[in-house]
Amino acid sequence: MANRFKEKSGFRIIVVGGGVAGLVASHCFQKAGIDHVVLERRAEIDPPEGASIAIYPHGARILKQLGCLDVAQADCEPCLRFKSRWPDGKLVFDDPFFDHIKNTHDQDILLFERRRYLRILYDTLPNKSYVRTGVAVRDVKQNAEGVEVLLSDGSSEKGDLVLGCDGVYSRIRNLMWNHADTVSPGRISSEEKASLETNWKCLVGTGPPEPGLGERDMTVVHDNRFSFLALTQPNRAFWFVFFRLDEPFAWPQRANYTVKEAEELAASIADHPVSDSLTFGHLWARCDRNMLIPVEEGVLKHWYSGRIVLAGDAAHKVTPNIALGGNSAMESVVVLCNNISRMLKEQGGVKPSQATIEKYLEKYQEAQRHRIWWIMKFSGLITNVQAWESSFAKFVALWVLPLLPDRSIALALSIIIWTAPSLEIVGKQSALGKRADISTIFKILGVFAVILFALYRSLPVVRSSLYKEL
Fold first, then answer.
1. What span, in angstroms and rounded, lies between the C-alpha atoms of 404 and 409?
2. Structure confidence at residue 437 (pLDDT)
């Protein structure tokens, strides 16, 4: 059934970016029988960059639909404990967070080295010939009949739609903005472009396992305006140190930190405890890969213009403390695929017009934009509370969270998990765990009320942006 889309209409999508979103897009389009190509500017699909990625039950459901879950689960061990520590390394609480998620949703949170996860996504593609590496985009030409993507090697790819999955510094997003400025001046405002804000920078690293951090645990160390986060597997440790910027900035400004700046920042916290037996200097000395990066956050209002559409970090970027960025990218690709599949089915083999394409891109955008906006704010709240970003964030960390039931964070995340989309072409899927009983619903509502209050108090900008969203 699915293959008739390609055979009858000839509809073709050019996916730019071979990261998580781009590879998941290829999986989805192959399942749907939609012709496409994935363009990755790097020569290798799994470069030695980044640290870890966590896949929640709603992300795991997508992997199951794509036929990747068994391979993915065999590559990692379920995490066990969530430990929180004060600045002196003293243990505050030790929570079976991961068990709560597993017991509620019948699925473990999966933790991978990011490059290994990319390799799994690539290796499990039914047909790898859809992926081209070592080619960068120079320009995109579009008209009412289609698009042509001009590439760095002098070649080009032609199709009907360009999907930008090329990250937070998206080349495709810039080209989309240029197109919108030409055909509809003022539609995408400078204010919207500047909604991609950078309030944090982060030392990211990975290295050999550290017994002092546990074998399969997550550790958070609080401090004033910075925090430490570590996640461990039996064969690997991943860590992040978040620093609040004294002078936050927004697009188009971009920070490019040097190796020297990373080393100086690491030296400034070398003696800081990360457990009752380890200091950060020990981790830094043993790591085999590290870098200092800016941490952007923001959700654009417009995700498409003409025949260009965005997904993943190119359209929505969240802080990584609660690890929802990769999952959000996957689910946005799934929602886009659902809408394109519906469009092609309704066209009955006739190639859709640009107006028809834009109608379904609008449906995709509106289905995900508000959901991802709340996920961004929830992620930002966690980042602020962990780093005691303000006096109120510190109050929440010291006096509110310790008094909540130990399932509170897991319950809050269950709202996101239960309401997540899935790939429609595969058929009806499981409801991601047990149905909530009345007592659980009231607990979730109580936790959600606390979260809303904390958002309202600790993030003043949320109040004005909330009014705009609603």
1. 9
2. 52
Helix locations, 33-87, DSSP H: 57-66, 69-73
3-class state of residue 296 by DSSP: strand
Phi–psi pair at 108, nearest 5 degrees: -70, 155
Q: Residue 182: what residue type?
A: T
The per-residue pLDDT for 4 is: 39
Residue with tokens 């400034």: 268
How is the chain split among helix, strand and coil, in percent rounded to 5?
45, 25, 30
CA distance 253 to 341: 38
Q: What is the dihedral of CA 18, 325, 89, 453, to 10 degrees?
A: 170
Among residues 305, 271, 286, 302, the alpha carbon closest in space to that of 161 is found at: 305
460-469 and 354-386 helices, crossing angle to 10°: 160
pLDDT digits 0-9 by tens, 279-333: 999 999 999 999 999 999 999 999 999 999 999 999 999 999 999 999 999 999 9
Give the per-residue pLDDT at 403.
75
Distance, in Å, from the CA atom of 358 to the CA atom of 79, rounded to the nearest integer, reads 42
Indicate the burial class of 49 (C-beta count within 10 angstroms; 0-12, 13-18, 19 or more). Answer: middle
Cα separation, 294 vs 313, whole angstroms: 14
CB 410 within 8 A of CB 108: no
> Which residue carries 């960068």 as its tokens?
136
- Rounded to 5 degrees, φ, ψ at 367 are -70, -30
**pLDDT at res. 464:** 47
- pTM of the predicted protein model: 0.91
DSSP 253-293: ------HHHHHHHHHHTTT-BSSSS-BHHHHHHH-SEEEEE
**pLDDT tens digits, one per residue of 244-284:** 999 999 999 999 999 999 999 999 999 999 999 999 999 99
User: Would you state the structure tokens that stand for residue 280, as one six-digit string?
Assistant: 């950060």
